[in-house]
Amino acid sequence: MTGGERQGPAEGSTRSEHFGEEFLGVLLDQGHELPPHQLGPLVARQIGRLDGRETSIFLQDYGQVWLVPLPGDGLAAGEPQPIDGSDAGRAFREARPIEVSQADGVRVYLPLLDGGDQVGVMAVTLDHLQDDERRLLRRLASLVADMLVTKHGYTDLFFRLRRREPMSVAAEIQWSLLPPLAMSTPRVELAGMLEPAYDVAGDSFDYALDGDVLHVAMVDAMGHGLDAATMATVVIGAYRHARRISVGLSEIYTFMDRAVADQFGPDHFVTAQMMRLNTATGRLQWVNAGHPAPLLIRGHRVVRRLQGPTTLPVGFGGHEPRISEVALIPGDRILCFTDGLIEERDVGGEEFSEEQLIGWVNRLEPSAQQIRTVARSLSHTLQRARGGITTDDATLLLIEWRGSATDDLALPE
Questions:
Q1: How many CB atoms lie within 10 A of CB 248?
Q2: Whether 265 contacts 312, CB under 8 Å
C-alpha cells in the first residue's frame, strides 16, 4: 500500500451502509408529508426490501397492559399482545430487541423508543438475521418511533387504537395535558404512571429539561370529574408559565396559587410538589404545598422521606414556601406520588398506608433495572394489592439521577 492509499472498509460493508442510507432515506423523504394512516404500509414496504414479512407495529394502550396492532395494508394486524407474557411485551419491558427462532426464520421484536418514552414495538420475520440487518432494523425502529410521535399530534387514529376501555372527558383532558410518560438522557431518567388510566381527573405531572436543570411538578386537584381536570389544567398552565419566565422555585407557588384562587374561588385547592434537579451536580431542591413527601430510594431501598417545610395547598393563599434541599448520589431515585396511592383500602379492608407502599418499593426495586419497568410494575402491583379498586386518582413519578460522569454524547468531529 502506497503512502497516498487508504485501506477502505470491505466491499460488503460499504454496500450495506450505502443500502442502509438509501433504505432509511426513503422513509425520511416520503414520510415527511405522508398521512398518518399510510405510515405503517410504507414501513411494511421497506421491510419487504429486506425480504422481511409479517410486519407488525404495536402501540401501548393507556393502561400499559396491552400492545395493540396498528392496522394498514401490508401489516400483519393479529391480536393485541399482553405486555406481561408475550415476546412483544418482553421487548417493550426490557427496551431491547428480542429474537425468537421459528420454523420459517427469525421473528424480531424491536422496542419503539422516542427519547426514552415507550411508543410500542415493531415486529418482523426474516429468513435469517445478520449484523447488518440487526443494525438497520434498530435504526429503522428509532426512525419509526420518531415519526409515530410526530404524527400522533395531528391524528385521532393512534388515540383510538390505544384505548382498550371507554375514556371519560376528564381523562381526555388530562392525557392531552401530559408530557411523555418517560424521558431518558445520560444523566437523568424519569417515568410516570396514572391510574385509573381511562378515568383520571385531578392528578397530573409536568417536567422540562432545560440545560442542566430538570424541572418537575406533581399536582393533585381536589374532587373528581371535569372540575378536578379543569383545576389541574389551570395549575399546570400556571406552573409552565412561571417556569418559562424563569421565576424562582418558591415564587412559582404564588403564580399557581393566584391562578386557582382567581379562577375557582376560596373553596377549591390543589396540592402540589415542585422540584428542580441540577443534573450536573445532583443537587435537588423542592417546595411542598400540602402534598405527600417524596421518598428517596438509594441502593434499591427507601432510605428516607424528603420531608421539609410545607405551605398551604395551591388556592388557599399560603405563605411563600421555603426551599428544601438534598444532595443525591449517582443511582438515587426519587418517588413522588399522590395521596390516592396510599389512602385506598387494600383487599383486607385496611387503609393502604405509606408503610405498605415503602414495603412494595423495597421488594420491587432490586428486580428491575429500567426505571420505566419499575414505575409500571409498582403501579400495577399496588393496584392489585388494593383489589383493583381505585376510587381516587393514584399517580406516581420516578426520577433517577444517573450522575454526570456519563455526559452527553460527544459530537463527531
A1: 13
A2: no
